[in-house]
Design a protein that fits this description.
The protein contains 25 helices and 21 strands. The chain binds adenosine-5'-diphosphate (ADP) and magnesium ion. Adenosine-5'-diphosphate (ADP) binds next to helix 11.
């Protein structure tokens, strides 16, 4: 059976499915729900909690009333069950009044808010069947209702569609459901627990494939250009910097130089806490590479960071006759064309950029070294994409991954088993540890007074504004917040603003102004999280601090304390144990361990964002540490057991195919 044969699918909807990357029944089933509406267990008014969604079976207690305010309308109505009363309101759905008044008993599903001390349902839906309703990632041109109906039809074909992909032995050993039962339960669970069990099967499978990919990367490692260097070259490099290297920096660069001297591609991760001086190590590797006549590329996760590296590095390389350029997305067409030309013809030996570096149409000339900065979040597919980009079919570039998140060793082995590890385990001398304070709302005024005093003394402050949704909301709230500060508590200070979606030129101007001390306070979203280096900034203020993972807060805190000045990090929120743990230590490893215990590996690895899921529901794998380790153990055993060589080959084959498919997608995005 094909997609086009499903009831409800005509030409237009078929195109909508294709556009969403769904070309077969199997792919339709693999696009599992992103969430569920649980109508299977209605709650009572007494049980529901503000802030969560809930289903309630209610009796209507009042006539529904319609009020209008200009073009807006609002329907309100009071309901009750045996435990109490709750109101509900609907905005801009005037027809709800008659709909409600025609019924006495209704089942409502919606978000519960606290409204004037009472519970209120806002824009709830009226439900008729008490079951669990899946919600799919929205596909333009395909209503959820139709999506559910075609999935139901596809589920009838499940037996024919699905070869089981895990052996009986593996499923039995780890208590995993068969493919068909699991996929059925993901789309049409009888209970939320069933959906969880089903998700667990695919999460395991995902991790098993990931492990297979990691293991094959390790044994594969292509040919790479050997870049010879000697101790004198390293000495000369360190001598060219304005500071003396730490022993850890020297050791790490020596390891890298040694790797690059081989004609087998380096694959090394450098872990070092924020401020440990990873950039200088990377620059040394880049210099060796460029001086040997090859190209090298440094890829940063954000535009801001890429520009900063570019600004810092360009004079250094150009002084030595080595062309250095920047490639980010959203550059003016003419500029981009010139940049691509400089890359292709080798005018640039050193390239700094963002994801644009692995974009379409980017062609390198003798690329021999790829460095990713702060990219512990990169998964194996992105690593592969990067390697493929620089490879000419015979030779691949050396790969260096730099990470400020000190990932505990056991987890690093599982996630980055294909990489060798260097640790920069000491900070440059003369740093004063950052003092961290948790500041509840009542103490805000004191904090602002402190910011003013510091500013008068010539220091600068970062302020990370309250969280808003991405996109337009991000801009509006960040700007409003900055204006509020500049007009109110920080009046008279020069306040700058930057955020993720800011136009390039503005962003550059904002950062330059702050770096040069022209602005005293930089309000931003978490785009300043990684890598930004302004040694004169001594204050980091984080609004809504309770919402962030500890590792992320540690990163933010790492933006200050970069010089010899005493620095502070203020977390604006009510104190809790988690944040107290952060305030008590400046050691990134301690912080990472606490984060791992409290929020799971997904938080630490940032996998939630990069969403590298090879399987339906597989992203959950990153959130479940025991499952992750179980899958790693399973891969180890399969690989090591000659009696199961066939099974291992099959797993590896699937892993390679999936990674390749995903890498294609990564490289064109
Ligand atoms: P990170 O490891 O967080 O990327 P950076 O490379 O940005 O850290 O370095 C932080 C700051 O420390 C920079 O201003 C850099 O110039 C400085 N730095 C790096 N290494 C040393 C050193 N050995 N001695 C003194 N300062 C150093
Ligand atoms: Mg850095």
């Amino acid at each position: 059976m094909e997609l086009s044969q499903l009831d409800g699918i005509g030409k237009t909807r078929l195109q909508a499915l294709h556009a969403a990357g769904i070309d077969s029944l199997r792919e339709l089933l693999y696009a599992v729900p992103v969430s569920y509406k649980d109508l299977s267990r209605p709650l009572t008014v007494a049980e529901v909690q503000p802030g969560a969604s809930a289903c309630l079976c209610l009796n209507r207690r009042s006539e529904a009333r319609l009020s209008r305010h200009g073009r807006l309308s609002r329907v309100t109505c009071t309901f009750a069950d045996e435990t109490g009363q709750i109101t509900a309101c609907w905005f801009n759905q005037p027809w709800m009044r008659d709909h409600l008044n025609n019924a006495l008993r209704l089942t409502l599903y919606g978000r519960v808010e606290a409204y004037g001390g009472r519970k209120q349902l806002q824009n709830p839906s009226v439900e008729h069947e008490l079951c669990i309703v899946p919600t799919y990632r929205p596909i333009e041109g395909l209503p959820q209702r139709v999506h559910r109906s075609i999935v139901a039809q596809a589920l009838q074909q499940v037996e024919a569609l699905c070869p089981e992909t895990l052996s009986d032995a593996v499923r039995a050993r780890y208590g995993l459901w068969p493919w068909s039962r699991a996929i059925r339960a993901l789309h049409a669970p009888q209970s939320m627990d069933e959906a969880k069990q089903a998700g667990r099967r695919f999460a395991f499978e995902q991790m098993l494939l990931y492990q297979a990919a990691v293991r094959s990367m390790r044994t594969w490692r292509g040919q790479a250009p050997a870049i010879a260097s000697d101790a004198a070259a390293l000495e000369a490099y360190w001598a060219s910097l304005p500071f003396a290297p730490t022993a850890a920096q020297q050791r790490t660069l020596a390891q890298i130089a040694c790797d690059m001297a081989q004609n087998r591609a380096m694959a090394r991760m450098v872990q070092g806490d924020v401020g440990s001086g990873k950039t200088a190590v990377a620059m040394g590797a880049m210099l060796l590479c460029a001086q040997a006549g090859y190209q090298c590329a440094l890829m940063a996760p954000t535009d801001i960071l890429a520009r900063q590296h570019y600004r810092d590095m360009r004079p250094y390389f150009e002084e030595r006759g080595l062309g250095c350029g920047l490639l980010v997305s959203g550059m003016p067409a003419a500029q981009r064309r010139q940049a691509l030309e400089n890359l292709r013809n080798g005018t640039w030996r050193v390239i700094v950029g963002t994801h644009a570096l692995i974009g379409k149409g980017v062609v390198y000339d003798r690329l021999a070294l790829c460095i990713t900065d702060e990219q512990h979040r990169f998964g194996v597919t992105q690593r592969t994409a990067l390697m493929q980009k620089g490879s000419d079919g015979r030779r691949a570039p050396h790969l260096l991954v730099m990470s400020a998140t000190p990932i505990p060793r056991s987890l690093a082995l599982v996630m980055f088993g294909d990489l060798d590890l260097s640790l920069i385990d000491e900070l440059p001398p003369g740093r004063t540890p950052v003092t961290t304070r948790i500041v509840p709302d009542e103490r805000r005024a004191d904090l602002y007074a402190f910011v003013r005093r510091e500013a008068q003394a010539g220091r600068q402050a970062f302020v990370v504004c309250p969280l808003a949704t991405e996109g337009e909301g991000e801009l509006k709230s960040a700007r409003a917040y900055a204006q509020e500060l500049a007009a109110g508590p920080l009046k008279g200070l020069r306040v700058g603003l930057t955020y993720g979606a800011q136009p390039q030129a503005e962003k550059e101007a904002a950062l330059d102004a702050f770096a040069q001390g022209k602005t005293q306070v930089l309000v931003s979203t978490t785009v300043v999280e990684v890598g930004i280096n302004v040694p004169n900034a001594t204050l980091m203020i984080v609004e809504d601090a309770q919402r962030y993972g500890l590792a992320q807060l540690h990163q933010l805190r790492g933006r200050v304390g970069r010089g010899s000045l005493q620095s502070w990090c203020f977390l604006l929120t009510q104190p809790n144990d988690r944040l107290r743990a952060l305030a008590a230590t400046n050691d990134g490893f301690e912080v990472a361990r606490a984060d791992l215990e409290q929020r799971g590996p997904g938080e630490l690895l940032g996998t939630r964002q990069h969403g590298e899921a090879l399987m339906p529901g597989g992203a959950a794998a990153y959130g479940d540490l025991p499952l992750l380790y179980a899958a790693a153990e399973c891969a180890r055993e399969l690989e090591g057991d000659p009696a199961r060589a066939e099974e291992w080959r099959e797993v590896s084959r699937r892993a390679t195919a999936l990674v390749e498919r995903l890498s294609e997608r990564v490289s064109i995005s």
